[in-house]
Amino acid sequence: MRFDILTLFPEMFEGAFNASIISRARERGYIDIALHNIRDYAPGKHRVTDDTPYGGGGGMIMKPEPIFLAVESILNIDIPGEGYHSLHRQGYPPIVMLTPQGRLLKQPLAQEMTANFERLILICGRYEGIDERVRQYLATDELSIGDYVLSGGEIAAMIVVDVLTRLIPGVLGDEAATAKDSHSGGLLEHPHYTRPPEFRGHGIPEILLSGHHAKLEQWRREQSLARTLARRPDLLAQANLSDSDRAYLAQLQQPGEPE
Ligand code: 6GU
Fold first, then answer.
1. Please, what are the domains in the chain?
2. pLDDT value, residue 259
């Protein structure tokens, strides 16, 4: 998968993309990341990328021209007057704006994107916003990573790249790992422990030392269910639950037996 990231702050990405899983995925050719500084595409000696909003109200707005020029250069196209969407329909890649107004990124959407797209263009917004014509005539999608406001789309773009990359078959090595992740089955993960078996006087659940595989799997499932019920009961409505899962959850919600 190839990511083209349009940003005013390419240096923000260096740490995130040059360590651990993402770095290894790049080295092994699973992903290719190209960072493009929008300022490099701004016309004029001063390479101005923003301007004041029509109608006032303060703050600065990202100008459309540098962003359109960047996309035209990266894809080697001329965007027609009616906009990019006709090219997108002909097979050109999605252009995704990262803003707090976008569709919320969740694991199922990430899985869909990884499965369907060979290339993604990510536009990171800054300042108070982006000229609406970028949204109307260039972007094909708009994503948010959560209900809070970041100073810009860069951290969100890093998150999109990370979330999608670890879903590419082969990237994690262990294919089963992503299937067990919190959220992938619609539930939170069970607790994990490693050595030592006693740490500063605190032990671990006995089941982990028992060697009883079926009982261990049942314990993990119950821990996932209990944790999801306690912390994110909203997730249960969408989760893939068996009859025995439902029975266990019902039992957890029973009022305690009187003595
Ligand atoms: Cl994608 N951008 C910004 N600036 N803030 C956000 C966001 C994106 N997603 C959540 N908050």
1. 2-166 (3.40.1280.10), 182-252 (1.10.1270.20)
2. 61
